[in-house]
C-alpha cells in the first residue's frame, strides 16, 4: 500500500513517513478530529503528565494503523502539542492510512 497524499504525511528518502500531529490532551475519548495548521488534530484521553500523553498517542496510532508500536518514534515535540512522529518504512508500507482520515 502506498502512502496517501495527505497534508500531515511526508515521505522521507529512506522510505519512512513523518506524521505531523497537533495533540489536545484530557479529551473525553481519543480520536482524530480534523486538521490544525496542516497537522492532524488528535484528541487524547490521556493527561499531559510525565509522558503519558506521548505514550497514549503512540499506542493509539499503532492500533489505528495496525502496525507495531516499536515502528513509531517520537522525533520532535516531546513536551509540545505539535509533534512529529516517524513511522518505519516496513510499517509505512503495511499501515492502514485510511484510519487516520479526519472525522470532522
Describe this protein's structure:
The protein is α+β, with helices and mostly antiparallel strands and 104 residues long. 19% of the residues lie in helices and 32% in strands. Strands 1, 2, 3, 4, 5 and 6 form a 6-stranded mixed β-sheet that branches. It is globular, with a radius of gyration of 12 Å. It starts with 8 loop residues before the first strand and ends in a 10-residue tail after the last helix. The model has no long low-confidence stretch (mean pLDDT 90).
Descriptive keywords:
104 residues; 6-stranded mixed sheet; 2 helices; globular
- Helix/sheet category: alpha+beta
What is the general shape? globular
| Major β-sheet annotation | 6 strands, mixed
Strand and helix order: EEEEHEEH
- Alpha-carbon distance between the termini? 25 Å
Radius of gyration: 12 Å
Strand content: 25-35%
Number of helices: 2
What are the low-pLDDT stretches, counting only 5+ consecutive residues below 50?
none
Rounded mean pLDDT is 90
Please report the total strand number as a whole number.
6
Helix content: 10-25%
Gist of the model:
The protein is an alpha+beta fold and 104 residues long. It is built from 2 helices and 6 strands.
Give the helix/strand layout.
Elements (H helix, E strand, L loop, with lengths): L8 E3 L5 E8 L6 E6 L2 E5 L8 H14 L6 E5 L5 E6 L1 H6 L10
Parallel strand pairs: 2-4
Antiparallel strand pairs: 1-2, 2-6, 3-4, 5-6
Amino acid at each position: 500500500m502506498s502512502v496517501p497524499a495527505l497534508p500531515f504525511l511526508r515521505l522521507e528518502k529512506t522510505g519512512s513517513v513523518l506524521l505531523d500531529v497537533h495533540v489536545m490532551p484530557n479529551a473525553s475519548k481519543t480520536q482524530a478530529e480534523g486538521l490544525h495548521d496542516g497537522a492532524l488534530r488528535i484528541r487524547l484521553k490521556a493527561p499531559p503528565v510525565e509522558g503519558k500523553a506521548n505514550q497514549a498517542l503512540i499506542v493509539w496510532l499503532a492500533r489505528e494503523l495496525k502496525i507495531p508500536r516499536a515502528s513509531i518514534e517520537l522525533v520532535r515535540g516531546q513536551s509540545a502539542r505539535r509533534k512529529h512522529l516517524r513511522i518505519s518504512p516496513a510499517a509505512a508500507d503495511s499501515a492502514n492510512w485510511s484510519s487516520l482520515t479526519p472525522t470532522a
